[in-house]
Amino acid sequence: MDIRNCSRCNQLFVYQGRGICAACQAEEEHEFDKCRDFLEKQPQASLEEVSQATGVPVNRILAFLRDGRLISKDPAMGGLRCQVCGAPVTSGRFCPACADKLRTGIERGIQQNEKGKNAMHTWGNRKDKEEPPG
């Protein structure tokens, strides 16, 4: 059992994959619902307009966009940039071109691993049984 402090309220909680406690997760879901409902009525609203209308902080709305939970109609409006090339994106962390390059690289790595190249091993299973470095 992994016990941590919530990154928002600093309360102790049992860590289950996210850095916030159940109460803060519920609050975040409520904030997301407010943003989603507002954007369904006002799809052309800017980031600041959504924040002012819902009371949800801009940085939290940006996190919803980065996580792919919300999608901006206009890439420039959300203020999100691709983490590789800096191009404007509507949602997520990468533009389509960089996401495709990343996907291709991962697929190539999986194919190489399936062919036996770069196979992982432990020192005890190596055939030459050298001493580990250091």
Short description:
The chain has 134 residues and is mainly α.
Topology:
Elements: E1 3-5, E2 12-14, H1 22-41, H2 47-54, H3 58-66, H4 75-78, H5 96-114
Antiparallel strand pairs: 1-2
Helix pairs in contact: 1-2
Explain what this protein looks like in three dimensions.
This protein has 134 residues and is mainly alpha-helical. It folds into 2 domains: 1-79, no CATH class; 81-117. Helices cover 45% and strands 4% of the residues. The protein is built from 5 helices and 2 strands. It has helices spanning 22-41, 47-54, 58-66, 75-78, 96-114; strands at residues 3-5, 12-14. Strands 1-2 form a two-stranded antiparallel sheet. The radius of gyration is 22 Å and the shape is flat. The mean pLDDT is 84.
| Helical residue percent band | 40-55%
Q: Helix count?
A: 5
Radius of gyration: 22 Å
SSE topology string: EEHHHHH
Strand order of the largest sheet: 1-2
Give the overall form: flat
**Uncertain runs:** none
Strand content: under 5%
The count of strands amounts to 2
Main sheet makeup: 2 strands, antiparallel
Average pLDDT metric: 84
Tally of domains: 2
Report the span from N to C terminus.
Answer: 33 Å
